Amino acid sequence: MKNLRQLLVIASLLALHPFHAFHTASTARADDGMWMPQQFPALADELRELGLELDPESFADLTGFPMGAIVSLGGCSAAFVSPDGLIVTNHHCVYGSLQYNSTAENDYIEDGFLAEARGDEVQASPTARVYVTTEIEDVTESITGGLEDVSDLERARTVEKRRKEMVKECEDESDDVRCWVRSFFEGETYLKITAMQIRDVRLVYAPANGVGSFGGAVDNWMWPRHTGDFGFYRAYVGPDGEPADFSPDNVPYRPEHHLKISTRDLDPGDLVLVAGYPGRTRRLATSAEVRQAQEWDMPMSLKFRTELREILEAQGEGDREVQIANAGRIRGLDNIRKKYEGTLEAFERDDPLAHKLAAEKALMEYVAEDPETASVVEAMRNEFDAILARERATRERDLVFSWLYVASPLLSQANGLVRMAEARAEVDDDERDEGYQERDWPRRLAAVNRAQRSIHAPTDRAGMKWILEKAMALPDDQRIEALDRLLQSVEGATPGERLETYLDRLYSDTELTDLSVRQDLSTADHAALEARDDAFLDLAFALRPLAEARDERDEEVAGARLRLRPGLIAAERARLDGRLAPDANGTLRVAFGTVEGYAPRDAVWYEPQTTIRGVLEKNTGEAPFDSPDRLLEMARAERFGSYADPDLDTLPVAFLSTVNVTNGSSGSSALNAWGEVIGLAFDMNWEGVAADWVVNEDVVRTIHVDSRYMLWVMDAVDGAHSLLRELGVQPRFTPAGRR
What is the pLDDT of residues 124-182, one digit of tens each? Predict the structure, then answer.
């Protein structure tokens, strides 16, 4: 216990190497962790018991097989699957590229896209990137050293400054490198992650919406599932083999490793490994954080997402161009909205708060034999709860303020221009806000271009009216004073009339709907932006003082968390004898489990595999259950070739595994014991969506599209035969004209 006390005191100051050896469970079980590659060798006994044929040590080698083939798309996961830079990911991960390239006349969202030849592949979008992790280095001492006796605000700012300096030094080595310094175990350990950044990404193939999004929002997060959620990009580089901007002179990237897409049989009990870049989990949260999420954060986010989604949907009625402009926003709102619905339902059923309270009780019992340690842990918990209480005091205002920029893409663009001007005024790049450093400027300009496809002034106005009405209803002690002043500055007998007058002025006195104007202003300084006398820029300027005050408050809270959280987590890890995965944070992870069904409720059992029969049963001919005619024809004729599963005696579509994932895991390759792609993770089941907070191994499952369904659609439905050959698969069917 003396060692634990020492650990609690210095946890945030030392590199504790979370990937060092730990004791594993005595028997293999459904896994509850998203493990760092460095941790994987310590799981060797469990993995071999489940049937792994690869050397577990190989997963710690980021430049070897199979991890060298796993890539990030900056929000989704993916993998190289050919020597010529072909990348497989989810259909919903290429959806933005389909939207970017679609018009009412060439509706790739609805009809799908297939480049018949390399020259037909189109730019995914100006902001599309592929990141290939090449190195991970422990830099904890360099980030946290010497911060024992400083204020919380100074601690946060010093850590941030050191992170930025380290990233800059790393990226100065090459324009082709992207670096991050990420916190693990809430500040206990810092790792520097280096990745190659590929900037020329092209859309190669995606099936029709009736395949890639079959079931739509109705089936989202649900099982049984029959969605062909897959698509393909290709990475391009300059003729010299180095990353380069989009150019017709570029050539396909040649990765050192790529994965094979499997046609092997898949059965219940088979090993499944999922490698990707999961975004964010909260499994190490305190009971107070769980309570706040359940009682406020998720219900209010769900409410706001539902209301804004209804506004966007109404704006697009009868106008396909507007529907295309709003499609990406609606899809994003829908995805999280339904997840939160399922999470709150699971919270009621599984009661993660009770789990957290029980774990905290067990921790206090564990440290009780040393009164000094117990006192330290209790004090940490009490102070952490006090921080959350302070945040609750302004949570209504903070929520509305953050949604201003979600409701109005034009305000988001204006704010980006203002913040870019602020960033350019800073002489020292380390003093610039993260996301607005010099390394970010090219992507900021690309994002300006990309946003044009999603800007529709009437939709923007409707969203802005909605969120301003919420601002007007805030309690007296949580007003957004800048908005109050602006709304009081216009004529009107009632608050509603003043709101309409202000909105008329806001949208008539702006030029930011013009892409060329926003492009010109992307390099403008503060004075030039003020001189524009643009209503949206004026609004963005008016809101900046509150944003800056919030940022400073958040920095101080972050510093307190850095002081408190590492000790609490270190104590919990000691209680668990070291077997604890850090929360997901967007970095490369590997999870494992098996193909397995589950019982969602009494007397009901879900099989772990679905088949083409379910597609035919669900198909109505109307969205979201509207399969392409060619697919229905081939399915009804039972023309499956060797893609059929011998045990199922038909074509498999999707399968479940006991692996657990989260947002960002989308597109992650599901690998078999030999490291072959047996499918792609694209969703969690409804009963398991609370796994971001707590894992109920009885019901938590990941939904994968089966590789054999992917190949059959490519072969029998879309005639993507050149791609199949590139994947090393010989086509079985005669081409039948494209849609």
Answer: 999 999 999 989 999 999 999 999 889 999 999 999 999 999 999 999 878 799 999 99
Q: Collapse the DSSP code of 191 into the 3-class scheme (helix H, G, I; strand E, B; otherwise coil) and give the result.
A: strand
Cα angle 689, 692, 697 (rounded to 5 degrees) comes to 65
Give the angle 720-723-729 at the CA atoms, nearest 5°. 100
Q: Where are the alpha helices (DSSP H) in 493-534?
A: 495-508, 515-521, 526-531
Distance between CA atoms of 124 and 95, rounded to whole angstroms? 10
Which two structure tokens, joined as six digits, stand for 134? 């090449």
Nearest CA-CA partner of 703 in 680, 726, 724:
680
DSSP type of residue 295: I
Q: Which amino acid is at 227?
A: T
Beta carbons of 38 and 56 less than 8 angstroms apart: no
Q: Are residues 394 and 557 in contact, defined by beta-carbon separation less than 8 angstroms?
A: no
pLDDT (0 to 100) of residue 31: 54
Number of residues in the chain: 739
The pLDDT of residue 7 = 45
The answer, yes or no, to whether the previous bond of 66 is cis (omega within 30 of 0) is yes
Task: Name the residue among 508, 550, 507, 531 with its Cα closest to residue 421.
Answer: 531
Contacts of 51 (CB under 8 A, 6+ apart): 270, 271, 673
> Residue 673 to residues 165, 262, 264, 269, 270: CA-CA distances in angstroms?
41, 11, 11, 12, 8
Q: Token match 């597109």: residue? A: 667
Measured CA to CA, the distance from residue 370 to residue 719 in angstroms comes to 69
Count how many Cα atoms sit within 13 Å of the Cα of residue 288 in the half-sphere of its side chain.
13
Instruction: Give Rg (Cα) of the chain.
Output: 26
d(CA 240, CA 43): 40
* Residue 212 burial by Cβ neighbours in a 10 Å radius (0-12, 13-18, 19+): buried
Q: What is the pLDDT of residues 47-66, one digit of tens each?
A: 999 999 999 999 999 999 99
The amino acid occupying position 385 is: D
pLDDT category at 18 given cuts 50, 70, 90 is very low
| Catalytic site positions | 92, 229, 666
Integer angstrom CA distances of residue 702 from 30, 593, 632: 12, 10, 27
Amino acid at residue number 285: A
Q: What is this structure's pTM?
A: 0.86
State how far the Cα of 543 lies from the Cα of 537, in Å rounded to an integer: 10
